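[Q] Does anyone have a clean structure-token version of this?
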Amino acid sequence: MQVFRRLLVNTLLANTANNFLWFALTFWAYLETKSVLATSIIGGSYMAIASIVGIFLGSIVDHNPKKKAMLGSTVVSLICYVLALLSYLAIPPHDRLDLATLPFWSLVFFTLVGAIAGGVRNIALSTLVTALVDESVRDRANGMVGTVQGVGFAITSVFSGLAIGFLGMGWCLGIVLFLSLVAILHLASIRFDEVKSEETSDEPKKVDLKGTLRVIGSVPGLMALILFATFNNFLGGVFMSLMDPYGLSLVSVEVWGFIWGFLSLAFIAGGIVVARRGLGKKPLRSLLLANVVMWVICILFPMRSSIVMLTAGIFVYMCLMPMCEAAEQTLLQTVVPHERQGRVFGFALTVETAASPITAFIIGPVAQYWVIPFMNGGAGSQTIGSWFGTGPERGMALIFVCAGIIGLIVTILAMQSGSYRSLSKHYESALNA
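[A] Here you go.
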């Protein structure tokens, strides 16, 4: 556990660098261009690339020592951020409002690739929970991971807004380079024994998609869980594209950064609760009940253009996120053999994130050219505007409400499915084996 805690600290350093730049890039792009389309392309591009390489990242984890994989991932991120800084310096100040410039999209590309490279260390950490933590407390260890993610989220959300507001994008890139270098040096100092499986030692180093699908298919209901998370991410693309523009339409970037810093306390609190209490005997049930509450929140908070309602709703939403993530991680760590976990986690990453870019790429143009005009003097403002409100932010709010209704219906149906019952029984059997 001492080694695991040191790895958590290192993950905090690396993820803080990645998340800091991700927030900063999104804020900067919207404020420079005032384009919802730009933020949807940025968000969608991230999820598209993550989807394409997820299985490959998982195979890297399975076929290499975990420390080596984590170290290599951070080095790649550092190189990408250096290239991102060079791209930023190549953008003339008078062209920063022009989305057609190559340096602007080079900056976006290298930033996203650097963040995606960090996915290797996150997959590796999930497998190290299995290797370093006793099975009886893995759900609590996953809660600790959620707490660390929340702490990093708090740091990055506050300081990225402040950094963009007072320093600019160039300084943000410099800060991230420093944090990435510190993370590399810190990880190099951590020593632990690697768990080597027969498969990792003897088999050729390949992705082996067929074998991964065979493992997933051997667990009743596991593919259904992955598809359920995929559908949630399909709707999640809406929030990825529109949440920052919606928030920035209500408050300044500095205030928005502080709000996200406050909201991240909810993520920390949720992670602490899971770390102390665990998930109980039925983590899958906990995951679905949390989803019911989260979708209800997504229906309620956009009903008025209120930063208070937005903050309160997202606070509760983020309290529940560590529970959902810890539940899925615990299920996979229990029912999937350790030597295959990297590729299964990578496959889940690929499939689950594949939906979000589709939504993000679609919802940006739909919001910009149809729904926002619909609620900003169009037919929508005349029919429901009297109680729902009018203006660009109400167009984004209408999309949030529709996504929440769809998500709630699908979650309720999932709770009544045979796949839910089959996976719950298989988890209980594996836990008691």
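[Q] Thanks! Anything notable?
[A] DSSP finds 18 helices and no strands in the chain.
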